[in-house]
Amino acid sequence: MSGLLAIRLGPKLAKHLVTKHILYRPATITPIRNLWIRNPFKKDVTATSAQDVVTKTEYEIELEKFEKKDNYVKYYGFDQDDPGFDEQLFKMLAVLFFSIVLGFCPIIMMYSPDFNGQMVPWRKREAIMQIEKRMAEGKLLIDPNYVPEDLIASMVPPAGDWEEDWLKKQASVCEDSRMRPFTQVPY
């Protein structure tokens, strides 16, 4: 915040020091502008010389204040000299922010059940929770009447090499890879 304040007040402070206190030489004073994003199609604005600023009367300075007040231009903080580019860049960044941060991030977070988890797939954790729940209730881990007997023969594929690979991926035969609380060591 203090950096932004220094960027905004830097040119005004330099002009004040030149007009009131004459502390700096005119060659060393340059306005602090366009530090965030520069417009490649716009020429840089040079500072007015200190002699022009000093020779103005108080009446002319007051008139300039009123002219600036009447010709007020919105300034979003990107390019003070080009209001069209400044507004265009503000709108572009606002659309990007709202579409990405408020549009896509909640969707990604909703559809990722193991978001920032402990490197454990969600299905293993869910299976372990179901096993612990059934054990606490005193039930068998797999209900023998889950599928009717007459449908079992049509559901089970023929024996082969696929069984070992398939069984390795099942959560009921995997080791418990959850982390212990406050440690990085598995149970």
What keyword list fits this structure?
187 residues; mainly alpha; 7 helices; 0% strand; rod-shaped; respiratory chain; electron transport; mitochondrion inner membrane
Describe this structure as you would to a colleague.
- The protein is an all-alpha fold and 187 residues long.
- It folds into three domains: 1-72, no CATH class; 73-111; 122-173, no CATH class.
- The protein is built from seven helices and no strands.
- The chain has helices spanning 2-21, 50-55, 58-70, 83-110, 122-137, 149-155, 162-168.
- Residues 20-35 have low confidence and may be disordered.
Main sheet record: none
Mean pLDDT equals 70
Shape: rod-shaped
In sequence order, what are the helices and strands, one letter per element? HHHHHHH
User: What percent of the residues sit in helical stretches (DSSP H or I)?
Assistant: 40-55%
Number of separate helices: 7
User: Kindly, what is the distance between the CA atoms of the first and last residues, rounded to a whole number of angstroms?
Assistant: 48 Å
Overall tally of domains: 3
Structural class: mainly alpha
Radius of gyration: 35 Å
Uncertain stretches: 20-35
Strand content: under 5%
Number of strands: 0
